[in-house]
Amino acid sequence: MAPPYRFALQPYRYRGTHTRHDCPACGNQHRNTFARFVDKATGELLPAHFGRCNREDRCGYFASPYHKPPGGTSYAEDIRNQCLPFLKGRVRQTPQMAPTAPPVVSVPEEVVQRSFAGYSRNQFARLLTVHFGAGVAKDLLRKFEIGTSAHWPGACVFWLRDERGRVRGGQVVLFDADGHTVKTVRPDGTIKRYTSWFHTALGQAIDRRKETHPDWLIAYDLHGAKSPCLFGLTQALQAPHTRIVAVVEAPKTAVLGAGFFPQYTWVAVNALSYLNAERIAPLKSRYILLFPDASLEGRAFQRWQDKAQELQKAGFRIDVSDYLEQHTTEEQQATGYDLGDLLLAEWPGYPPNWDVPHNESPGECSILNDFAVGIGYPVAAH
């Protein structure tokens, strides 16, 4: 039986970049940034213009086979209409049969637990310690389930655990001492960002050792959804229902936000386009405040503003903050500056003589007070 959605974005595979292509809008200036749509019934790629560019806040190209132009039909409808005569003549219709849901493949718990070590060489753990002190840093690492990865020296892994306790994926990132993702320039002039996914990094390490992949990794590579849920969901579900849930794009920003503003519950969606009703459904009973990254002409803000209006109609209590739009320069917007970048740029560090409980405001910093006022938090209560 055909899957409920026949066409989907081609999953990323760890064996090279053959599952990522050149974006029709970016051309050859930014290589391997385009995910094409694939026919799940045949395994064949759709025409080359159907897909999504990963450079969402800078390019934003997206062409869906389900998009219906004014007065016309979508690609999906055209394919369906071509197949109907064949299906009616040869297949018995069984509308009462529901499509079988794909299996849920998760990362084994013992694999996750082994990553909770080596924090002395974990660059992100060291960053948290410098800014918040060892006690708060340890609490943040535990609450957000941040591990250490050997993929790159100093890298961390942000685990994603769903509402049923299953670890659905892990993002591996290498940060520099200032909290920015490490980037290098390739020989062809393109930029390499030191980000990956745990299953990809593990598969590459096993290949280098010329060992056999474990069964769970083979299954994950075939059926796993690398980022199907919110980052930080577990600690969010454990927080009081009266606490505001702040939603950002990147896991780093969610962790830093929790350190600077523990009065809120912080989660991350992992990408601009990942904000949808299914992903934030576990938090539907909470009040949600969105913090999109800064972008030129407010593209990211407008996309989340439109999505928020859609989600409000579906029963969510949700709003969008324009704080970054009001407090970033054009240059910062061009680089996709986020709230974490803004806070790190202004934060003086953790003074040795400063020590406050994690449930209070962490010291005096002008940008923190400005931010608190901007989002409606009463500074006087600090």
What is the topological layout?
Blueprint: E1 7-9, E2 34-39, E3 51-53, E4 62-63, H1 75-90, H2 109-114, H3 123-132, H4 134-143, E5 146-148, E6 156-161, E7 167-173, E8 183-185, E9 191-193, E10 195-197, H5 198-208, H6 215-223, H7 233-238, E11 245-248, H8 251-260, E12 265-268, H9 277-280, E13 287-290, H10 299-313, E14 317-320, H11 323-327, H12 330-334, H13 339-346, H14 366-374
Helix pairs in contact: 3-4, 8-13
Domain Zinc beta-ribbon finger putative: 5-67
Protein name: Toprim domain-containing protein
Pfam family, one: DUF6371
Q: Strand tally, please?
A: 14
Which whole number gives the mean pLDDT? 82
- Domains (count): 3
Would you identify the CATH architecture of the largest domain? Answer: 3-Layer(aba) Sandwich
Q: Which percent range describes the beta-strand content?
A: 5-15%
Order of helices and strands: EEEEHHHHEEEEEEHHHEHEHEHEHHHH
What does this structure look like?
A hairpin with a 5-residue loop joins β8 and β9 (191-193). Mean pLDDT is 82; it is low at 85-96, 352-368 and 377-382. The chain has 382 residues and is an alpha+beta fold. α3 crosses α4. The protein has helices at residues 75-90, 109-114, 123-132, 134-143, 198-208, 215-223, 233-238, 251-260, 277-280, 299-313, 323-327, 330-334, 339-346, 366-374, and strands spanning 7-9, 34-39, 51-53, 62-63, 146-148, 156-161, 167-173, 183-185, 191-193, 195-197, 245-248, 265-268, 287-290, 317-320. It has three domains: 7-90, no CATH class; 104-229, no CATH class; 230-382, Dna Topoisomerase Vi A Subunit, Chain: A, domain 2. The longest helix has 16 residues, at 75-90. The protein has a four-stranded antiparallel beta sheet, with no helix packed on it. It is 32% helix and 14% strand.
